[in-house]
Design brief:
The chain has helices at 3-9, 64-67, 108-118, 177-224, 228-251; strands spanning 15-19, 24-27, 32-38, 41-45, 51-55, 61-62, 72-75, 84-94, 97-104, 124-138, 144-160, 170-172. The protein is α/β, with parallel strands linked by helices. The chain has two domains: 3-195, no CATH class; 197-251, no CATH class. Strand 10 and strand 11 (144-160) form a beta hairpin. Helix 4 (177-224) runs antiparallel to helix 5 (228-251). The protein is elongated, with a radius of gyration of 22 Å.
Length: 252
C-alpha cells in the first residue's frame, strides 16, 4: 500500500471495523445483550505491515448515532435493511472498555441470530467506526510504523462468526436479567452524556491554557525586564508539557 493510500485510510472520515468477540448477558423477553464491544487498549498489525493502536478514553468516541437511536446492529458489517437485525441502545466507556447494550429485533434474520445465541453458539461482535482524528507512529529515523487513532465515530455494531477473542461468546441469561439490563442501559446513557460534556470542557480548558502565554507574556516581560518573545516561548513549552501530562493522567 502506498503512503498516500495509508494516509487516506486513517484520514478523518475514513471507516474501519474492529473485531472484538465478547462475553455478554442476554435477556430473552426484550432480547437485550450487554457486551464489551471494544477493549480499552487495542493494537494489531494490518495486512500492509503497519501497526494500528487505539486507546479508548471517555470522550474519545463520538456516540451521536447512538444518542439519536440511529446506530444499527448489522450482520457482518453489511449496511442494508436485510442485514439490520437490531439497535444499539446505549454505549459507555468503562474500566474494561467500550460497553454497549444491544437490542435484537424479533423477525427475519434477527430471529436466526437470536436462535444461535439461545443455542449457545459462539456469536461474536465487531464494531464499525469512522476515524475522526489520528496521528502517525514514527521510529527514531522518521519511518512510518503505523497510526495511533485518537478519536472515532461509532457507526454500527455487527454480529459475526469470529472476533479478536475466539473463546468469548454471548451467554443467554434468565428472564430476571431484563430489569438489570434496562437499568444498565439507562445508567450507561447517563454516564456517556457526562463523559461527553467532561471531555468537551477539558478541550475548552486546554485551548484556553494554550492561548494563555501569548496573552500574559508582554506584561510579564515588562515587569521582569526580559524579552517578551522568549518568555512566551518558555511559557508555551511549560504549558504544553503540563497539558500533555494531565491528558496522560486522565487516560491512565
Amino acid at each position: 500500500m502506498s503512503a498516500d493510500l495509508v494516509e487516506a485510510a486513517y484520514a478523518p472520515g475514513s471507516r474501519l471495523n474492529l473485531p472484538n468477540a465478547v462475553t455478554s448477558v442476554a435477556d430473552r423477553r426484550d432480547r437485550l445483550v450487554e457486551a464489551i464491544v471494544m477493549g480499552r487498549f487495542s493494537e494489531r498489525r494490518l495486512a500492509n505491515g503497519l501497526l494500528e493502536h487505539i486507546e479508548v478514553a471517555p470522550g474519545s468516541v463520538d456516540l451521536a448515532l447512538v444518542r439519536q437511536r440511529r446506530c444499527p446492529v448489522l450482520i457482518e458489517h453489511h449496511a442494508s435493511l436485510e442485514s439490520t437485525i437490531g439497535l444499539v441502545e446505549s454505549v459507555c466507556v468503562e474500566d474494561d472498555g467500550l460497553r454497549a447494550i444491544l437490542r435484537f429485533a424479533k423477525h427475519g434474520r434477527a430471529q436466526e441470530i437470536w436462535n444461535l445465541i439461545e443455542d449457545g453458539c459462539p456469536v461474536a461482535v465487531s464494531i464499525g467506526m469512522a476515524v475522526t482524528e489520528s496521528e502517525p507512529l514514527l521510529d527514531e529515523t522518521g519511518k512510518l510504523l503505523g497510526f495511533t487513532i485518537l478519536s472515532l465515530k461509532m457507526r454500527e455494531v455487527s454480529v459475526c462468526a469470529t472476533g479478536a477473542d475466539p473463546a468469548a461468546h454471548i451467554i443467554v441469561g434468565t428472564a430476571g436479567h431484563r430489569e438489570h439490563l434496562e437499568q444498565r442501559a439507562t445508567e450507561m446513557r447517563e454516564n456517556a452524556e457526562k463523559q461527553r460534556w467532561e471531555a468537551r470542557f477539558t478541550r475548552i480548558r486546554a485551548l484556553e491554557w494554550a492561548q494563555w502565554p501569548a496573552v500574559v507574556a508582554p506584561e510579564m516581560a515588562t515587569e521582569l525586564g526580559v524579552d517578551a518573545a522568549r518568555l512566551e516561548e518558555t511559557l508555551t513549552r511549560a504549558v504544553d508539557r503540563q497539558i500533555e501530562r494531565l491528558c496522560q493522567e486522565k487516560s491512565a
